[in-house]
Amino acid sequence: MNPAGSGKVGQAAAPAKAPAEPLESGDAPAEEAPAIELAVPPAPEGAAKTETGASVEDAAAAPSEVPGPAAPPEARQPAANGISWWRSFAHSIGLAADPAPGEVAQPTAGRPTGAPDYVIGPGDLLGISVWRDENLTRQLVVLPDGKISFPLIGELVAEGKTVAQLKKELEGRLAKYVTDAGLTVEVKQSNSMIVYIIGRVNAPGKQVLFCNTNVLQGLAMAGGLNPFAERGKVKIYRQQGERTAVFPFNYDDVADGRHLETNIQLQRGDVILVP
Predict the structure, then answer these.
(1) pTM above the 0.70 mark?
(2) Residue 249 and residue 235: Cα distance in Å, rounded?
(3) Which fold has domain 194-274?
(4) What pLDDT does residue 82 have?
């Protein structure tokens, strides 16, 4: 048999592996090919593993089998803005409710809370009397600088004080002249609670307030808005120290029971402008 021919046949088809025969004594065992081991770097401590043993980072790097990524949130944002714009437009033409109604009218139980104490201001007429002493009984008008003048005491500031505060100060100053004075202080006439309403109202000018009054009530005192008034652009100007605060007011919203927080209580010297 030709050995070369045997080699060719072996190249064409590998013969089946014969079962290993036992080694006879004295024969050296055949050398086996060394096994190849792949070095896999250990995962860092604390790294999360998947069920197959791979780390989360490796799993994230693997190609995703999802057909396509979801649409980013930015792609859906214009639709939300479009809905918000449509709601605002529908409210402006009366086809939908106000999307931001603010404070709305709600029924309340019980009695309303009491009004704060009256604060004396320039122009108020005060009545001050001492029991059993007609010489110390006076009716005084608070001057524009907020002061009054009283016998035995001289000048003192009355503006910005309540009746109780002014009475306590007068009693302390009179104590060294009159014992058990029985002092009485009262506001005979309130002339300082004045607000000014100007612009497109039926009766512009100054209004004297005799009780706590809000913006809606003040506009009613001025005869209401005329047909040419811009009802949604009313403003209230209030002097606060050295600065002027401006409060917006929408007549139609408040009349419909919305944004009631803008219907603020008027204070001495407020100016309501109706463009």
Answers:
(1) no
(2) 6
(3) Outer membrane lipoprotein wza fold like (3.10.560)
(4) 53
